[in-house]
Amino acid sequence: MTINLFQDPISSYRESDTDNDLDNEIAELERKLAAAKAKRCKHPRSRLEGDSSSSSSSPERPLLAPNLPNHFHLLLSDSALPLGSFAFSSGLESYLAHGHKSNPYHPHTSFAAFLPLSISSYASTTLPFVLSAHRDPSLSNLVELDDAQDASIICTVGRRASVAQGRALLGIWERSFSQSLPPLGSSVVTAAQRGDLKAFGLLVKRGSSKEIPDASAHLAPLFGAICSVVGLSLQQTAYIFLFGHVKALVSAAVRAGMFGPYQAQKILAGETVQELITEMIKREWGTKVERAGQNVPVMDLWFGRHEVLYSRIFNS
Amino acid sequence: MNSPFPKSTSVPGQGHLVAKLLPEGISGLETFTYQYPLKLISPSRPSEDESVLIFLLSYGGGLVAGDKVNLKVEVRAKAKLTIVTQGHTKVFTSTSPDIVTRQDMHVHIASEGALCLLPDPVQPFAGSVYEQTQIFRLEEDASICLLDWVTRGRTARGENWSFVRWVGRNEIWTIPAAQEDGKTDSRERLLVRDAVILDSNRSHPELAKLRDSMHGVGIVGTLLLRGPLMKSLGDFFLAEFAALPRLGARDFRSDAAKQAAALAQATPREKWRAERLVMENNSKLLWSAANVRGCVVVKFGAPEVEDGRLWIGSMLQEEGSISHHFGDHALMCVR
Q: Region (Disordered): which ranges (chain A) (predicted)?
């Protein structure tokens, strides 16, 4: 037997010690697994029907318990969520109208050029509101964020788009989601959270007659708060929010005749979109709402000038 | 007591300015202090009675990297203050991106007071890092006219949005009438927060470079208007915006017919508008106007700095209420 002089005796002792521990742990877990499998065989009721023969031998089992966050992840990221996003092109239509051969500074319009600018601008102006509402979905914070966003959207068209979608989301929450949540006690959504969103809804309805309403229901803070309440993580929420923006843009581009549905899916599935969204979330992760702002000034011009287009197929 | 030299404060870049209504009914200065690198000048003989004029300057006509200017402005009840500059505010190159040049302005305008701030644009040099925060707190019936604009840099030296970072933030708040104890009241409310963040640091290679994302624009500006004295000017911008020809509409008339129609237009305003629209078209100037919570926000951008200046000057002069309320000197930077 050769002795390695450079071997640290203490660490080798520790290694063998952990090895023993691990072996013990594995043995213990295997024993538990066998016991659990035996139990499962005694309760055939809990097996999936029609799959009983294979499921008993397969270690992979389907998720049997309902999972609220997972379920809402799918619901809130669905294009069929009736927010009316299809009515808004987020400045794309105006951008196309402003691009003209006679303009030496803006001769070509392309979706490939517009998309990254739009994601970056949207993240810079709006994402901090989503993140902040998710971190603190209380009524007071939601009202404050909603008011701050109302003050920072400096064009009529953008405000209209944000409020229309926010109110639609509030309506979906009130009429659909909140009424189909599992009963209190068995659910991740607490009574206080339900109460806060309800109170916010009342505030929106009450304030609509004032010159400066108490609450307008802008999309970003409300989206963050609802995602938080149903248990989505901060990262999931930010990703769904930005991806929703991309989906709406791509869909608007298809309807504006820029490309077809296959190209649309190719863009949506592409690495560029994934990386851009991830980078934008990273960039805005720590941005306070007071520091949010427009980083593509011409976007404000395109947005604002959507109103002077002769013909429009979108509301923004 | 009435020393011809303003008192100096001890903190670099600090300034304090108080405008009040003098017994004879014209606006004057109550307090007027500044410290290097900030410099304030008030012409010894007021040329006009409508408002008191202050030149906001810096030694050498620009801000060196790391300069921090912090100006506190108070406009007392019914007083009118005009602040202008002399030439572009240059922002010199920073040796390191960590060295930020800052200009902050905190303004309080008492009831029926008014401030007109129509300075020259900020001209950030290549490699500069600049942040500007301007916060305006308005009591009831106070008025503000604020122009904030930034250029692509020194075009003669090939600069084209070549700075490291430029951040401009403007906030308008309404506050209840002043309280003795100086406590902040819960009824303080943010009306508008306008923020522009121009950062050369791209977080992803797919994102356009800063200069490409500007789409050929060489100057971008924001005009914020609020209060009873700005009502007619605000309405004017909104009406002119609504009167813009529809983009993509087609005019099937012949050139001769168009000219005949233009000549037939009787009012001087319509003639002026027709000329302005030609100018907007030729200079590729884009603008928009919106009413945001009782404030009018005008955004504009143009490839050439001078075209931007001509345009905003033409709008303000045509409407005329700035000259009327503050005197012609208020418009000296936009002519």
A: 1-21, 36-63
* Cβ separation A211–B189 shorter than 8 A: no
Q: Answer whether B220 sits within 8 Å of A154, measured CB to CB.
A: no
The reply to whether A6 falls in a domain is no
Asked if residue A79 belongs to a domain, the reply is: yes
Domain that holds residue A36: 12-55
CB contact under 8 A, A276 and B204: yes
CB atoms within 10 A of CB B133: 17
Q: What is the pLDDT of residues B98-112, one digit of tens each?
A: 899 999 999 999 999
Strand (E) positions, B152-244?
Answer: 165-174, 189-199, 219-226
Q: Mutate which of A115, A296, A302 to test chain B, going by most B C-beta atoms within 10 A?
A: A296
Chain A residues with CB under 8 Å of B220 CB are 297-298
Residue in B with minimal Cα distance to A271: B206
Sign of CA dihedral B180, B181, B182, B186: negative
Question: Could you give the angle at which helices A219-229 and A139-152 cross, rounded to 10 degrees?
Answer: 150
Q: Is residue B216 less than 8 Å (CB to CB) from chain A?
A: yes
The structural domain count of chain A equals 2
Q: What is the pLDDT of residues A20-31, one digit of tens each?
A: 777 888 888 888
Is A267 a domain residue? yes
- pTM for this model (two decimals): 0.85
Adjacent-strand bridge partners of B296: B225, B291
- Mean pLDDT along residues B186-207: 89
Q: A147–B246: do the CB atoms touch at under 8 Å? A: no
What's the CATH number where A242 sits?
A: 1.10.4190.10
pLDDT digits (tens, 9 = 90+) for B4-55: 566 655 688 999 999 999 988 889 999 889 998 899 998 876 667 789 999 9
Both A121 and A189 in a single domain? Answer: yes
